[in-house]
Amino acid sequence: MVNVVLQRDECTVIFKNVPADICDNCGEYYLNEDVTGKIMAGAEESVKKGAEVEILKFAA
Questions:
Q1: Which of 4, 39, 43, 47 pairs with 33 at a CA distance of 20 to 30 A?
Q2: How many percent of the chain have pLDDT more than 70?
Q3: Contact between residue 56 and residue 40 where contact means Cβ atoms under 8 Å apart
Q4: Where are the domains of the chain?
């Protein structure tokens, strides 16, 4: 599980406990297509409602 931080203009959205594949060598994480789609949709909703900073628990 990882935390994902996205920023657009003045809006910052943090998703907590996101399932990811994590590289044992460098620690970089990779999200699958389904998880990425959910995060992008959630972030777009935060931008639309004018959030400046929003912290969300990822819902699978």
A1: 47
A2: 100
A3: no
A4: 2-57
Closest CA to 52 of 1, 13, 11: 11
Token code pair at residue 22? 């994590």
pTM for this entry = 0.88
Give the burial class of 18: count Cβ atoms within 10 A of its Cβ; 0-12 exposed, 13-18 middle, 19 or more buried: buried
Q: What are phi and psi of 30, to 5 degrees?
A: -130, 130
| CA separation, residue 55 to residues 10, 27, 60 (Å) | 15, 23, 16
Give the model's confidence band at 21: pLDDT under 50 very low, under 70 low, under 90 confident, else very high.
Answer: very high
Token couple for 28: 């970089």
